[in-house]
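debug: dumping io for the single-chain case to check the tokenizer round-trip. Nothing else runs in this session.
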Amino acid sequence: MKEVKVDDTVKIHFKCKTNDGLEFSSIENNKPLSFKVGEGKLLKDIEQGVVGMKLKEKKKINIEHKQAYGTVKEELIQEINKNLLPENIEPKIGLELFAKDPEGKEIKVRIIKVLENSIVIDANHPLAGKDLEFEIELIEIG
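debug: decoded output
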């Protein structure tokens, strides 16, 4: 039976749980994740973890936050005045916005706190600081 090797294009279904209880899955929308092994577009541990798997095989992969999306960087959390927001935006926790970093590059931020005259935004990846547990099923080797 064929095994996955580097440069194969594969499709997987996955479930992921974080150490704080968040769960998400490719099965929810029935869209398997397709990628070329070794291309570097996914977490390294996922790409390396599928090497050697056979069709329909299932596997668990645990990834510590430092190997996943890193630790939470406090300098990426800032309080800003609400009057800096466009007038048509109603600030709510979880709302994603685009801002410019000091070099003028566009970055995605999330509102994590709404105060009377200000909001607190977080530019960390939503999974920063979280350990991840993936359950993977290999459904296609291309």
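debug: round-trip ok. The chain has two domains: 9-69+127-141, 74-122.
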